[in-house]
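Why predict the complex rather than its parts? Because the way molecules touch one another can change local conformation, and only a joint prediction can capture that. The input here totals 464 residues.
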Amino acid sequence: MNIFYAPPSQINNGYAELLDQEAIHASKVMRAREGDKLTIVDGEGGHYRGIIRRITKKSVQVEIEDAQHHSRPKPHLVLGMGIIKKRDRLEFAVEKAIELGAAQICLFRSEHTIKENVRMDRLESLAISAMKQSLQAHLSTIEVYHSLDVMLESVFADNILVAHEKVDEAKGDINYKSVRNSERTLLLVGPEGGFSESEIRDLTDKGGELVSLGPNRLRAETAAIAFMSQFL
Amino acid sequence: MNIFYAPPSQINNGYAELLDQEAIHASKVMRAREGDKLTIVDGEGGHYRGIIRRITKKSVQVEIEDAQHHSRPKPHLVLGMGIIKKRDRLEFAVEKAIELGAAQICLFRSEHTIKENVRMDRLESLAISAMKQSLQAHLSTIEVYHSLDVMLESVFADNILVAHEKVDEAKGDINYKSVRNSERTLLLVGPEGGFSESEIRDLTDKGGELVSLGPNRLRAETAAIAFMSQFL
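Output of the joint prediction:
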């Protein structure tokens, strides 16, 4: 099943308009024709089925036949992740976290961060394709923060879980009840090398709970994906 | 912490010998010198600490000072995965499954398989680096099968779980008890497009239990990683 994306601003008066990459994908790659049916999501829960009425060089006009609204699935998970040095691994982690249902992804610089710049254009188009691929109707937001502190001040979460290698075994299990009962849970994963000791102290002072992701040492992107997978 | 790999055939009379890539990695990349200490795993549970006695162009000789044996952690998980078309996605899934503790990875051709050839040399060196990276002492085996049937006949497993999109909601949860009580659990994930209906019938006839990995449609490699993550 092929799904296309048009933000709410492109949906008006019973018509949706595909532009740019989405229009090219429909008309050139998928070879859609006037009269064909297709499905569109608006990234904010809107899910439309419609029929193509007009294809031009730059846009595809779709008459909406059926409109539905999906609410954001619970639990509402925010993934906070240290910026990973290797671009392919960072992008892989972001793509997988979105497929697995992360509503928001916050990348941050921390003490052990090696690389600082992030190709946001690539991450944003990756967020759209992961949303469509996994049949979701909500577009995940991606944000970059200069520091862990700034991120913690900016992101609302009433529950914070921190993946950490060195966890007292008796305390290391994920408290699923705290996640179900929260409005918004923030899952935190460090960059390569993990969080520093002072960052861990800061995080626990702010109410973060340390959790273990098993006995093996996981790469940063593996930890992010495995952490998200705990809430399937 | 840097760990090196030497198979049991290279460990004799209180000495371990690093060869090929491992020797180059130690002497050239890590700039190890005679007298330096290092850690070696043999891929079969052996875990050695030793001191470098001799570095030549092609080998590094290590005198073993401490030897331990680790048994394979339980549960014993085998990941059976349809061959994925894109090489980077296939390799990513294999690497992550090993980090997460898969003892054996069986790649197979199935009805929806598009691509058939696999670069085994790359997967084998990836298995070694993932073992070292995740601080494990056991090397995962990787096998390729011409068909799902041949794989099922060749691989011993007393418990089979099959990731499937269309699962009756009442039955879709993973039975963790069946995994803990089994000698060896086989986790099966299809290629892109999943298993065909007749494959699913075959698998359930052979005792396979269908399990759901949540409401989102997951890419094949995401399903494999998320499936493995359920057993952390």
